[in-house]
Design goal:
10 strands, binds NADP nicotinamide-adenine-dinucleotide phosphate, 14 helices, 6-stranded parallel sheet
């Protein structure tokens, strides 16, 4: 029996994880946490708000599923990695913001870091513990979001309602906006760099509108492995929670003869500058990825509240990145300071936009 702690139990990932745990006799939900929605009775131990690591200490889980949204998920990521408890990671923001600190914690703790993001789960399965030198390059696919094919002019007046209408995935509001700006793929690029130890020039992003191919890995011998399946987060959630078992899920196998379309295009970096900004922030390293993430969180919240236009998200992030020194974080205090500075600068920018 695997003891599961689910942090972020009321969200899109959290609800799907509850379904997976309930259907699997080898998984036992021992603890669940939410940010503000009451969840009494959902698990033997529950917590709403406050520091979820207190709950984790009491729960003694075998695996923690971090399904919190945003930088708020960082203490959960560090708690699991530091203690050698398996971490099923949906909360990409924590690895983007604190990649070096998280990998150092994993080095000390020795636990497994199992990606839940569908692209990274796919790449993890294609790479299968092979060494970095056997891998030529990694390709992450992007649906392109609801505004694929539009020009900058077309995006001047789009509303939060327009941006929340994602063509292939049903997700929480923050990641849905990130998908519309391509910031989600930017975060995933940085996440992949830390997860797989590949330099940025060996990680490519391509637009693939039907979201059937989740990732591809090219190897040095000329072979390319791809991971295909219907877009359904229950697959990577189940894979991470039951690893290495690959348990059954309710998701049907892919039916190729019914007319699956596999098209790939280069992303439009001019219309969607958040992807290029992420690549630059990742390549510059230090706390630039942390700044990128924090500025994006603030700008997305401002957009959803009607305080910033859609195109203002990327401008606000770009301005904040230009205003910081990006010095590496020696510890969590340094990182928290970089996160707070980025939030303050972006709030100030959004207030005058
Ligand atoms: N949704 C997807 O399909 C998908 C796919 C790939 C990756 N991800 C990643 O998975 C994460 C979650 O996404 P989501 O779409 O599930 O988000 P969501 O629907 O907005 O849910 C977020 C969850 O986090 C909880 N939460 C927020 N702040 C918290 C805090 N301080 N302490 C404890 N819990 C807190 C929320 O609780 P309340 O309900 O009480 O606010 C909620 O349960 C994100 O990092 C996202 O990028 C999501």
């Amino acid at each position: 029996m695997k003891r599961v702690a689910l942090i972020g139990a009321t969200g899109s990932i959290g609800r799907q994880a509850l379904e997976i745990v309930a259907a699997h006799p080898g998984l036992e939900l021992v603890a669940a946490a939410s940010g503000s929605t009451p969840i009494d009775g959902l698990a033997p131990l529950t917590q709403t708000g406050g520091d979820p690591t207190e709950l984790l200490e009491r729960a003694e889980p075998d695996v923690v599923l971090n399904a919190v949204v945003g930088f708020a998920g960082l203490p959960v990521t560090l708690w699991a990695l530091e203690r050698g408890v398996d971490l099923a990671l949906a909360n990409k923001e924590s690895l983007v913001a604190a990649g070096d600190l998280a990998l150092a914690a994993q080095g000390r703790g020795g636990g497994r870091l199992l990606p839940v993001d569908s692209e990274h789960s796919a790449a993890f399965q294609c790479i299968e513990n092979r060494t970095e030198e056997q891998v030529d390059s990694l390709v992450l696919t992007a649906s392109g979001g609801p505004f694929r094919g539009r020009s900058r002019d077309d995006l001047e007046d789009v509303t939060p309602q327009d941006a929340l209408a994602h063509p292939t995935w049903s997700m929480g509001p923050k990641i849905t906006i990130d998908s519309a700006t391509l910031a989600n793929k930017g975060l995933e690029l940085i996440e992949a760099h830390f997860l797989f130890g590949l330099p940025y020039e060996r990680i490519e992003v391509v637009v693939h509108p039907t979201s059937i191919v989740h990732a591809l890995v090219r190897f040095r011998d000329g072979a390319t492995l791809a991971h295909l399946g219907y877009p359904d987060m229950r697959v990577p959630i189940s894979y991470a929670l039951t690893y290495p078992e690959r348990a059954a899920t309710p998701v049907p196998p892919l039916d190729l003869a019914s007319g699956v379309t596999l098209e790939f295009q280069a992303p439009d970096l001019e219309t969607f500058p958040m992807l290029a900004l992420a690549r630059t922030a990742g390549e510059r390293g230090g706390t630039y990825p942390c700044t990128y993430n924090a500025a994006n969180e603030v700008a997305v919240a401002a957009f959803l509240e009607g305080r910033l236009p859609f195109l203002g998200i990327a401008s606000a992030v770009e301005e904040t990145l230009a205003a910081v020194d990006g010095a590496p974080a020696r510890d969590l205090d340094d990182l928290t300071a970089a996160d707070e500075e980025a939030r303050r600068l972006t709030e100030k920018g959004a207030a005058v936009a």
